[in-house]
Design brief:
By secondary structure, this protein is an alpha+beta fold. Helices cover about 20% and strands about 25% of the residues. The protein folds into 2 domains: about 110 residues, Pseudouridine synthase I, catalytic domain, N-terminal subdomain (Alpha-Beta Plaits, 2-Layer Sandwich), CATH 3.30.70; about 140 residues, 2-Layer Sandwich (Alpha-Beta Plaits), CATH 3.30.70. Strands 1, 2, 3, 4, 5, 6, 7, 8, 9 and 10 form a 10-stranded mixed beta sheet that branches. α1 packs across α2.
Length: about 280
């Protein structure tokens, strides 16, 4: 594994006008300490920034669409940053790919409007959580699916997601930032939530929202698994869990390795090309 320290760039001031870039990434989050940079730890943003700076020769500031936690994967994470106007983006993509390890891939890169911001321009994010619902675990899925040996009732799971759709205060399903009290709003708008039976005991939970708070998808998934095994909360009790605005009212937090940031959507007014299909996860 290539440590970030090896990739520390030779820094120089940018020469000439800058342009905004949209880059799409895929990564296996197993060996990363999350997306956001943390001193002394291998992170997606730290690894990527160091590689980009080594290629372009000047500092860059990365903005990510989603701050995935340690162990969470991404099929199509989006970042934005600025480079000197005449930078060869195709060559940048190739050279950055050579500097990063096999668990991080640059799927696509293109110039974007100056107003584009990977985080704040996004209209929604879509996640997929995978569960292996079999008596025996599958070693080949140990990095990408949560093994739940207890039988899950798919009908109960599908009934339970309906109350989640719409705008709610998701305090019961979120880890509130330290020291913020009630000053930070945890109101989010869920656009869609559904369960997919992929066959052979593999279940996918899909959820799309305008934004997510910390551990929201994993907390919802863990709580729904309690419902699916016939426990609490019952399908009709999810509204009560939301209304409690208390993390203690919800269930367990699902482990990170089953979660994938699947897609980030932006307004068509930016004129961005849809990225090519990322590697399958």
């Amino acid at each position: 594994m290539t440590p970030e320290a090896v990739l520390e760039p030779r820094r120089a001031a940018p020469g000439g006008p800058l342009v905004r870039v949209r880059m799409t990434l895929a990564y296996d989050g197993t060996e990363f300490h999350g997306f956001a940079e943390q001193p002394g730890l291998r992170t997606v943003a730290g690894t990527l920034r160091a590689a980009i700076e080594r290629v372009v020769g000047h500092p860059v500031v990365l903005v990510g669409a989603g701050r995935t936690d340690r162990g969470v994967h991404a099929r199509a994470q989006v970042v934005s940053f600025d480079v000197v106007q005449d930078t060869d983006l195709a060559a940048l993509r190739r050279r950055v790919g050579r500097l990063t390890a096999a668990d991080l891939a640059v799927v696509s890169i293109e110039e974007a409007p100056a107003s584009f911001d990977a985080r704040f321009s996004a209209t929604s994010r879509r996640y997929r959580y995978t569960i292996c619902n079999r008596d025996v675990p599958d070693p080949l899925l140990r990095r990408s699916a949560w093994w739940v040996p207890e039988p899950l009732d798919l009908n109960l799971l599908r009934l339970a997601v309906d109350p989640l759709i719409g705008e709610h205060d998701f305090s019961s399903f979120c880890r509130r930032p330290r020291g913020t009290g009630d000053r930070v709003s945890l109101v989010r708008r869920v656009l869609d939530a559904s369960w997919e039976d992929a066959g052979e005991g593999i279940l996918h939970f899909w959820i799309e929202a305008n934004a997510f708070c910390h551990q929201m998808v994993r907390s919802i998934t863990g709580t729904l698994v309690g419902t699916g095994t016939g426990g609490r909360p019952r399908p009709g009790e999810l509204l009560g869990v939301l209304g409690a605005r208390d993390r203690a009212a919800a269930g367990q937090i699902a482990p990170p390795h089953g979660l994938v940031l699947w897609e980030v959507r932006y307004p068509s007014s930016f004129g961005l090309s849809p990225p090519p299909d990322p590697p399958k996860l």
